[in-house]
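Hey,

Quick one before I head out. I ran the complex with pyridoxal-5'-phosphate overnight. Inputs first:
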Amino acid sequence: MTENSDWIDYDKHHVWHPYSAIGADLPVYPVVSANGVRLKLADGRELIDGMSSWWCAIHGYNHPEMTRAIQHQLETMAHVMFGGLTHQPAAELAKKLIEITPAPLQSVFFADSGSVAVEVAMKMAIQYWHDKHQPDKQRFLTIRKGYHGDTFGAMSLCDPDTGMHHLFSGILQQQLFVEAPSCYFGHPCKGDGAKALRKKLKKHHQHIAAVVLEPIVQGTGGMRFYSAEYLKEVRRLCDQYGVLLILDEIATGFGRTGKLFACEHADVTADIMCVGKSLTGGTMSLAATLTTEEISNTISQGNPGLFMHGPTFMANPLACSAALASLQLLLNSPWQERIKTIEKSLQQGLAPCRELPQVEEVRVLGAIGVVEMKKPVDMRQIQPDFVDAGVWVRPFGKLVYLMPPFIIGEEDLNTLTSAVVRVVEKCPI
Ligand SMILES: *Cc1c(COP(=O)(O)O)cnc(C)c1O
């Protein structure tokens, strides 16, 4: 395949893309390199990245310090099995994660993707209650409009409608759902915001292993920002009813919402926490599930006295080294100020969308800017429009949103937001 057009055409007919069809007529753009906040297409065009490759590339692309860390590890040891062996990058990364996550988390399970980290969290909760002699606690309670991944366990926790549960109804675990919180971020929960959750817990707590949710920001399930008071109440109810709290920080972790972890907005801590996505600064696939000492000790001293999971590429040294480099870069940067500056620019830049008849709502939190449309967008139209405007923005459903790399400059951010305004303006009413 000597011409770009050869492999692009091959891809179209033989390679699955996320949530796609083989041979589909939707545009897929060939990218040949990426640097800073710019993606370079095969035809030479450069696009300013508004997506951070799905929350991940917080330092932009091809960051020299990330490349150096990965190269160094590559020359030492690219991979080694984790059963019966260990290595310094894994131990150092575990130490760092335990240091920076909210207090009680004391042990780390390294997984190879976010979905697997969620599966691991669910298995840990079930094994914990098994070893506490409450083997009936095997179900999970969550809120609608959530997203937790695409494997079967994780999928069972996703919003039943957008997650298309009916397709898999014969095999999917039936979890318990309550309505997504209606109280908005920064506002109190009027009346009894968590009433539905309390009712479910009261009735079913003997069968519930854990409440699972995305703290403060519901990502792919709807890009919604909910009140910290709700999360506080969830924590309180979990304690009251003897149910674990699993916080999925895979999208929100590492600064995106303005706090290092979104649960810090509510000052709550998790019994089990999942991180992933930007953990390696968008360079390698790695995720982690952290638990309290109480949970890890109970599982380790229980029956069979082992936690029953162990991926082939567990704690891949390249990925662990990338994560260490990414965390060092992040924590040594003025990330809080950067996020505040991005938040302000998103507020100002997206504000004109509020006046457009196509738009239902504009909301911004941290380095996340969302324009919710009244109708689902037409990807056939809107995707080329964004590319023609010189930006990489990938809407889904009714949501046109930006979550740029933290290193983005004022001017590039303005280009992104004005492109959103212009493209949204052109959408049919
Ligand atoms: C992306 C995401 C996942 C799944 O992570 P993968 O690495 O895609 O498997 C789980 N939970 C949340 C909140 C996510 O945003």
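The mean pLDDT is 96.

Talk tomorrow,
K.
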